[in-house]
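Example record for the data management plan.
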Amino acid sequence: MKQKKKLQKLANEYRNSRKNEPVANGVKSLYQRYIKEREQLLLEIAASVVALDATVDLIKGVHYERITPEMEEAFHLAFPNMELSDLEGKTTEELEGLLVAWKGKYFEVLVRDELNEGQAVGDLQLESGQTAVLAESPTQPGWDLQILNEDGTIDEVYQLKATESLSYVKSALAENPDIDVITTEEVFADPDKVTEQMHSSGIFASDLESVIENPFVHHAVDYVVPSASIVVITVAEGTKWILGKQSFAYAYTNALEKSVKSTISVGAGTLAWIVTDMGLISVPTTIITRLGLDRYQLMKKLQDKIKERNREIRKIGERYVYR
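Corresponding structural encoding:
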């Protein structure tokens, strides 16, 4: 009889604890919590995909989006038997040699375009009907650029030298004394220049180098973006802590767990890209891995919860068993 009263009291306490909260409100609260967690998960997945894209770019080493049409034309003029994709995997020494030739041809493209657009290049400007044309062969001896008259006859030819070295330009003039040189501002500003045979382009060699090297340079943002998902997670969990919705310890643990899952998913996507060389495979791999880790953690928590409840039930049974 005594045990029965204790059980009845326990049941009444449970009912009273739920009395002031309608079931509908409880369901609504649970639903809203589910929606918020889903939205946060989708945001973290989106950030992981962005991080994957940036990580792949870092590995690839070449930012093709920074290559302008003029740069691409110059590349193919300098290396008619190569594709831009051939730049990947080159050693530093190999790239240095390629970039020098690419820079020189890019300089030629810029000078040609400026002349054909009616602009003055130093003291040079085309007359009506004239056209500037580059040599078709990258190993064309003597001249690099022709000025053609309207009837197709050659008016003048020039050597183009994208260099900072005056001695190099003087050497080119010594080899081809009848062909004037269009060169960079650095050389033209040298007081020892041969004025009558050198023409300023108005272009600095340092600017040419910066443009040509830009596709291979990783800016600060390239290293920040791969951590985008971690930033999103940290801000979300930190906001909850600041608003008093969770303790600092819980926010820290939660942020750490989510960051680890995000890092693993980005790593899986990157590995998929390395193995298959296909972005279409790497993105789904990142998403599926992230969802899979979340599902695994959820199932583990559910199992732990069930085990905990079973232990509580066994303890209650031991306390109220009839002897």
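Summary line stored alongside the record: The longest strand covers residues 154-161.
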